[in-house]
Amino acid sequence: MLRAPSTSVRTLLAWTVAASVLAGCGSPSGESAEDKGEPAARTEVTVEPIEATTRLTDVNGEKVSLEKRPERIVCLFALCDDILTELGIVPVATNSALLAHPGFLGEDKAEEVDVIPGGFIAPEVEAILSHKPDLVIGLGDTHGKLAPALKGATTFWAMQPETWQDSVGYLRDAAALTGRTAEGEKAERAFRAKLAEAEKTPSDRTALIVYGSDENFGVATPEGDVAASLLPKMARYPWKSRGVEGSYSLEEILAQDVDVLFVETMSFGGEDGKLSEKLAGNPLWSKIPAVENGDVHEVDPEVWAKGRGTRSLGIVLDEAAAALR
């Protein structure tokens, strides 16, 4: 049986700002720029201005109040690293490996950022406070328990993203709090333009994102997985959440004739090896059209499963679009 995605597993791993899409006009003859051998007009979008502030109620209803613009920020999950990178800020310490990705700081520069000991589930409070942060950003359902220990010493901001719209909202909120409003607007505009381009020519192929470390893997669904929330407008993505205890059987997946598989291998402790390789000997797995046709794509879980911000999602869009052609 394939397990449905649970919040706890994926973390190890609807307010939307109004935007208008302005597509390039076609020629009077009805020929597109592509038909005439000319480069297609780039999709342009407009976004609402962001106003700087030190107090706000975020996209999820969380109140955040700061004495001044934060300069020393500690990230306890990858969305924070994603947002700060978009805003041109480097965290004083982090709890994820996302910054090492070449689309972010890269390995060399990422090594200059301190890592909070204790792992994702239990980051050490003393280590966090040793960096004298103005702001600590964590995942609500995982790091919310740290709030009492941090109270009085710093401000803790609990984020809880579930869709790409949430991620854009958090980007805007962080841009307002840090005063990086122009950078926030630019990042949002770039992401929305890329998403609009991807949605212009949706694929008729069936896609699926699976994650895990062994045969007990789960299906990423749009209701609770940010990367998966992009897929329904790019391809056929017939996977709906069945709740924490729900599951999809391998027979059900076979019945959907999946054309393209995206696989996120989660690594825990000493476990190694790609999930797709571990499943290669399963006779039912081998009957999935994507497997038969060699259209299985191992993707970086730091970006696809954990990043969740506009920079990570831009990478997801590029990789998904290329695979779905």
Automatic annotation (TrEMBL):
Residues 72-325 form the Fe/B12 periplasmic-binding domain. The keyword Chloroplast does not apply. It comes from the Bacteria. Transmembrane segments: none annotated. Residues 1-23 form the signal peptide. It is found in: Cell envelope. Keywords: Signal, Transport. Pfam families: Peripla_BP_2. Belongs to the bacterial solute-binding protein 8 family. This is ABC transporter substrate-binding protein. It comes from Streptomyces chilikensis.
